[in-house]
Amino acid sequence: MQLIYIGKITSTHGIKGELKIKSNFEYKDKVFVVGNKLVIDNKDYIIKSYRSHKGFDMVTLNDYKDINEVLFLINKKVYIERESDSISDVILDEDLLKFNVIINGEKGVIKEIFFAGSNNKIIRVLISGKEILVPFNKEFIKNIDKDKKEVNIELIDGMML
Predict the structure, then answer these.
(1) Is residue 76, in this structure, part of any structural domain at all?
(2) Which of 73, 126, 135, 155 has its CA 20 to 30 A from that of 8?
(3) Last residue of a domain, one of 52, 81, 110
C-alpha cells in the first residue's frame, strides 16, 4: 500500500471533534469527500463531514463526536492510499518524475517539479544535455499520456533547447 501525503492536523475547532488540516495537496476536491478514507498513523478513518475554513480543511471523522476524543490526532500527518478510487485517475507530481518528455521530437526526462510562487508550477527538464525550465500550463504541456508515461511539450518562440 502506497500512501500519499495530504497534510497535517494542526488543531481542533469547536467542541464537536472537528479537526483543522493544513494541506497544499493539489487535488483536495477529490480527497476531502464525505465517506473517503484517510490514513493517520497507519489507521484508517472515514470522513464524516468536510468544509473549508480560512485556508484550512476542516473534517470530522466517524466515531468521534467530542473534542476530547480527537486530541490525540493533533500534529499527526494525514495520508490517502494511492490506490484509492478518488485519486486513482489522477497523475501526481511524483508520478510525472518517472515520465519521459518529448520536445520537438527529442526525448528527455523531468528532473524536478517545483513552485515559483503560489500558483506557478515549473518543471525542470533535462534534454540533449541541457536543462530547461517550462511552466506547467496548457500553453506548453500539450499532452500527458499516462499509459506511455510521456509528456509532450511544445515550446513557443523565444524558448530554446
Answers:
(1) yes
(2) 135
(3) 81
Cβ atoms of residues 100 and 107 within 8 Å = yes
Q: Which amino acid is at 73?
A: L
DSSP sequence for 55-82: TEEEEEETT--SHHHHGGGTT-EEEEET
pLDDT digits (tens, 9 = 90+) for 85-115: 888 788 888 888 889 999 888 899 999 999 8
Residues 31-45, mean pLDDT to the nearest whole number: 95
What values do phi and psi take at 123, rounded to 5? -110, 135
Band (pLDDT 50/70/90 cuts) for residue 157 is: confident
* CA–CA separation, 81 and 88 (whole Å): 9
What is the CATH number for 143?
Answer: 2.30.30.240
